[in-house]
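User: I'm putting together notes for a lab meeting next week and I want to include a structural view of one of the chains we've been expressing. I don't have a solved structure, so I'd like a prediction I can at least talk through. The sequence is below, exactly as it appears in our construct file.
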Amino acid sequence: MRVAIIGGTGFIGGYLVDALLADGHMPSLLVRYGSDDKVRHRNACRVIHGELTDEAAIGSTLEDCSAVIFNVGILREEGDATFENLQLRAVERVFEAAKSNGVQRFLLMSANGVYADGTDYQRTKFLAEETVKNSGMDYTIFRPSLVFGDPRGLMEIGTQLLNDVIRLPIPAAGFTTGLRPRKDAVMMSPVHVRDVADAFTAALADSETIGRTFTLGGPESLSWAEIVKRVGRAVGKNKWVLPAPIFLVKIPVMLLDWIPNFPVTRDQLTMLADGNTADPGELEALIGRPPRAFTVEALQYLATRRAESGVRQTS
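Assistant: Thanks for the context. Below is the predicted structure for the 315-residue chain, given as structure tokens.
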């Protein structure tokens, strides 16, 4: 079938294109002007140029499609690229275009741990879910935990930790929700990007997934400190991690997170404190195999970035 992807040129979007083509689908992508070099398998995709505010371009992207995947999300706001505009209003525009084009199947990329009274990121993701649930369409919603995997020139959590934490000659922060490092550790269930992409294609083939919300997590729940240490070990570096209670870290962050490219915002710290774990059983049942783990072996794509990151091999 022809499947539209809104958000098909980023880290996860590229893997969605791979998975759709592998299953015999024909991707139709909405692509910003000047971003053609980010399109995977360009000759196998239909590319429509336009912005998320361009209703005509969205409509053209959905033309003759049997399903649409909405896979747009940002971690921080910049100018008109706000959580409200990209994570909620854009969903509403795509929903209207789907109705106009007779597209009944809607797959939404949300996030684990979203709720109505959360941060602006969480609130808009939650309201987008509600929009889709009340649309009358055959929807499926996915809530992944921390997504990792080879970013192929883009950015994901392992690469970000390598660049912003591992290469620095200072101890890393092991975030906790309180003063007890073990009992108050921030926990995550890192999930591999290929498993996330396979969940979408599995849902397209299974009508039993209609009207359901899936939480996607890997086979291990790891503390933030252990995640940092595994990234370090993947590039041959034993990183020293110090407990960092989030309520204390928020104090300097409140003064500095206005700086462009500052590595963390106060809202991101709030979401970290909420935790981000998931039962791997949902993903395993959906894709028909155990999900990949966040192991040193699975992180070997980071080893190729030693030189650019300034990380030396250690014994």
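A couple of points you could mention at the meeting. The domain at 2-144 is CATH 3.40.50.720 (Rossmann fold). The longest strand covers residues 138-144.

User: Perfect, that's what I needed.
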